[in-house]
Write a structure and sequence with these properties.
The chain is 50% helix and 0% strand. The chain is built from three helices and no strands. The longest helix has 18 residues.
Length: 84
């Protein structure tokens, strides 16, 4: 979700939701709500975070980007670390 007073950030959240819908929800049939939660959670944790590369992250997965960020944090203190 976007920070209060920052509607320009909504696009990022909308893009993540679109990716989840196109990559998992529209391609699956769920037997019940628990099954849907389990499969969507798996998609986010395994596919989105560890297998799917992101052009905005220099073609790394979010997990790779986070590992690199933690190993080599920005030297500019004006750049804040994301809260994960």
């Amino acid at each position: 979700m976007a920070a209060t007073g920052k509607p320009s950030e909504n696009g990022y959240a909308e893009r993540v939701i679109r990716t989840i819908k196109e990559g998992e929800v529209y391609l699956s049939e769920y037997s019940n709500m628990a099954d849907a939660k389990q499969q969507i959670g798996h998609f986010i944790d395994v596919v989105y975070q560890h297998k799917r590369i992101h052009s905005a992250l220099d073609y790394m997965t979010p997990a790779e980007f986070e590992a690199q960020w933690n190993k080599y944090p920005p030297s500019n203190p004006a750049i804040s670390r994301p809260v994960l």
